[in-house]
Amino acid sequence: GDAIPDKDEL
Amino acid sequence: MNIFRLAGDMTHLVSVLVLLLKIHTIKSCAGISLKTQELYALVFTTRYLDLFTDYISLYNTVMKLIFLGSSFSIVWYIRRHKIVRRSYDKDQDTFRHYFIVLPCLVLALLIHHKFTFKEVMWTFSLYLEAVAILPQLVLLQRTRNIDNLTGQYVFLLGAYRALYILNWIYRHYTEPHYVHWITWIAGIVQTLLYADFFYYYFQSWKNNVKLQLPA
């Protein structure tokens, strides 16, 4: 799968 | 950070502060759905589980604390404050939480990026945020009286996610590997839910008449 989404968004 | 996301976060911040200000100054929550506010508190709780584990930036941490604090204090005001609670219209605000929470939970268990507790909770919070406004929109349809602050609150809430869509488009073109199709779909569904409200909001603003949603 695609990269684990970086959680830099609120 | 890009201008779209900053504008989105500021719009989101103003929307919750407008609501807190309304409730705190006029000591009334008329027209506000407690169900939606409780769902938002759940959205922030399940989305910010990494608040104390992953430090991203001061901005990120401060904003998370503000969103958590404001959503829980709004719920507290409507549930516990001796004056505010009297203006809560519980007979009209009857949307069942589990009609929204359960499908989002099932969907998060089926469709996610990675099957870990935090990742499923984060995905759940995305799906939940997309539909959390429904009880509020139902309440507005029923009560039909939309005072300015409530109208502004819902408008700003919709606008913030629309700005986030621009942020995702921008990041998609400027950052490699920026693929968040789950976030994108949830965000688009969320903004579409506001579309009809936006339509009536602009109509009332353009014709300078009181905002009325059709029954």
SS-based structural class of chain A?
A: little secondary structure
Q: What is the 3D shape of chain A?
A: rod-shaped
The pair of chains with the biggest contact is:
A-B, 9 and 23 residues
Mean pLDDT of chain B: 94
The helix content of chain A, as a percent range, equals under 10%
> What is the straight-line distance between the termini of chain A?
23 Å
Describe this structure in words.
The complex is a heterodimer of chains A (10) and B (215). With 10 residues, chain A is low in regular secondary structure. Chain A contains no helices and no strands. Chain A is rod-shaped and about 25 Å long. The N terminus of chain A is likely disordered. Chain B has 215 residues and is mostly helical. Chain B is built from 8 helices and no strands. In chain B, helix 1 packs antiparallel against helix 7 and helix 2 runs antiparallel to helix 5. Chain B is globular and about 45 Å long.
Summarize the structure.
The complex is a heterodimer of chains A (10) and B (215). Chain A has 10 residues and is largely without helices or strands.
List the helices and strands and how they pair.
The complex is a heterodimer of chains A (10) and B (215).
Chain A: no helix or strand
Chain B: H1 3-26, H2 34-47, H3 58-80, H4 97-110, H5 117-131, H6 134-143, H7 148-174, H8 181-206
Helix pairs in contact in B: 1-3, 1-7, 2-3, 2-5, 4-5, 5-8, 7-8
Keywords:
heterodimer; A: 10 residues; little secondary structure; B: 215 residues; mainly alpha; globular
